[in-house]
Amino acid sequence: MSELARTIASRLRHLIGDRRRAERCKANLQVEITLLEETHDHTLRRGQSTRAHTLDISATGLALVVPVIRIGDHYLAGENRRLVLDVSLPDGPIEIEVAPVRYERLDEDASEIGYLIGVSIIAVSDQHRTQYDKFLSGLLQR
To answer: pTM to 2 decimals?
Structure first.
């Protein structure tokens, strides 16, 4: 999808309303994003990583602000891309496997430079899911 198409989709979302299913909460959490790369024998291994932070979170996904859209030769939001997030929660770090669902370049007049990447949660351990849900529940009760 071209940059223009992404911008138009983002603007339409603002005009006609956001139809996301899960309630989102503003949260500024430090995140390390690591690429999952497929090896020659079709197993996954951790690749390069970069630092980012969350803009908001929900039970089903997160919005990440990243300084770059590529790490080496790999796009963070590439088709069929899988990422591992190491998220710093107040009760300790958790690991979440995610898939990018959309991205857009942040406007030049925005307070931050970089890209906004929306990701969907695809895997998380039971223990880390409990920690995440507890943190999210606290935000929803505010």
So the answer is: 0.79
